Amino acid sequence: MSFPDIHRVVTGHDADGKAVAILDGPLATVVPLTAIPGTVFHEVWSTSATPVSINNDTDPTVGELVLPPPGNGTRIRFVDIPPDTEDYLANGAGRMKDAFNEIGDEAASTVKTDSPHPLMHRTESVDYGIVIEGAMTLVLDDSEVELREGSVVVQRGTNHAWANRSGNMCRMLFVLVDGKYEAEIAAALDKRNG
C-alpha cells in the first residue's frame, strides 16, 4: 500500500504586500530510510525561532534530514511507517543506531537490551503525532496505547516508540516543538539513565 504524494502550498507576500503562493507542488525533501525499509520521511516545513520571522525566505526543509526541531523552533513532517517484521523486532536493536544516525539524531536512541521496542527514543520536545491513515501502537516504558485514524498523541519528551502491528502501512503527521525539561524531570531522567 502506498500513500498519495504530499501536496504543499506555502504562502508569502509580493512586493506590494499582497498574499501569494510562493510554493505550490510536491515536497522538496522526501527521504526513504535505508535502515528501516518502507519508512519514508516527508519534510513539510520548519521554523528556527519564536516568534517566527514571517518572510519570503527559501525552503527550510532542503538539506540533511534531522529528527528534532531546531532550537526554539518547530518541524512538521509526515512519516510513512511499515508494519513491524519478525526480523526487525528480533535484530532491530543493533541497527537502530544506524536508523537514528540516518535521521540526524543518533543520540535520540534510548534502546537497550531490555527495551520494549527497538525504536525506543526520546527528544527534548513536545511532539503532536496524528494518525492520518492506518493504525499504530504507542510504546512507552511500561505501557502501550493503541491508536487509530484520528488519534492524536501529545508526546512530552518521553521515552517512546511507534510500533506498527497492524500488518498495513501507517501514515502519521508529526508537529515537533522545541522544549526544555523542567529541573525536576531532568533530574529524574539523569538518575534513571545514570
Task: Please describe what this structure looks like.
It is globular, with a radius of gyration of 18 Å. It is α+β, with helices and mostly antiparallel strands and 194 residues long. 14% of the residues lie in helices and 36% in strands. The strands form 3 sheets. Strands 3-4-5-11-6-9 form a 6-stranded antiparallel beta sheet, with no helix packed on it. The protein has a 3-stranded antiparallel beta sheet with strand order 8-7-10, with no helix packed on it. It starts with 6 loop residues before the first strand and ends with a helix. The protein has helices at residues 86-102, 183-193, and strands spanning 7-13, 19-26, 29-32, 40-47, 74-81, 125-133, 136-139, 144-147, 152-156, 161-163, 170-178. The longest helix has 17 residues, at 86-102. This is Cupin domain-containing protein. Residues 119-175 form the Cupin type-2 domain. Pfam families: Cupin_2 (PF07883).
CATH homology superfamily? Jelly Rolls
Total domain units: 1
Give the CATH level 1 class.
Answer: Mainly Beta
Helix content: 10-25%
Uncertain runs: none
- CATH-derived topology: Jelly Rolls
Shape: globular
Q: What sequence of helices (H) and strands (E) makes up the elements?
A: EEEEEHEEEEEEH
CATH architecture: Sandwich
Instruction: Tell me the fraction of residues in β-strands, as a range.
Output: 35-45%
Oligomeric state of the chains?
A: single chain
The SS-based structural class is alpha+beta
What does the main sheet amount to?
Answer: 6 strands, antiparallel
- Backbone CA Rg: 18 Å
How would you state the average pLDDT, rounded?
93
Number of strands: 11
Pfam family, one: Cupin_2
InterPro entries: Cupin_2, OryJ/VirC-like, RmlC-like_jellyroll, RmlC_Cupin_sf
Domain Cupin type-2: 119-175
Protein name: Cupin domain-containing protein
